[in-house]
Write a structure and sequence with these properties.
Elements: H1 5-18, H2 23-36, H3 38-48, H4 53-69
Helix pairs in contact: 1-2, 2-3
Amino acid sequence: MKNNINEAREYLNKANALDSENFLLSVTRIILANQSSPEMAMKQFNLVFPDVAPEINRIIGYAILSGDTGDRVLH
């Protein structure tokens, strides 16, 4: 999908049509932004999900550190 902008736009439009609150659209934008700008993706995530962002970021950080030590298998 990252190599096909038209296909990505089509999926964004479908997500917008299915979800009136744009939850799916927000998640899709964050995923796409992560491909080109992880920093922008993190900012968007924090703006869209302010109530859970600190906890999710803490969990992701722990998962990354655990993966680096070989203690856990990340899927």
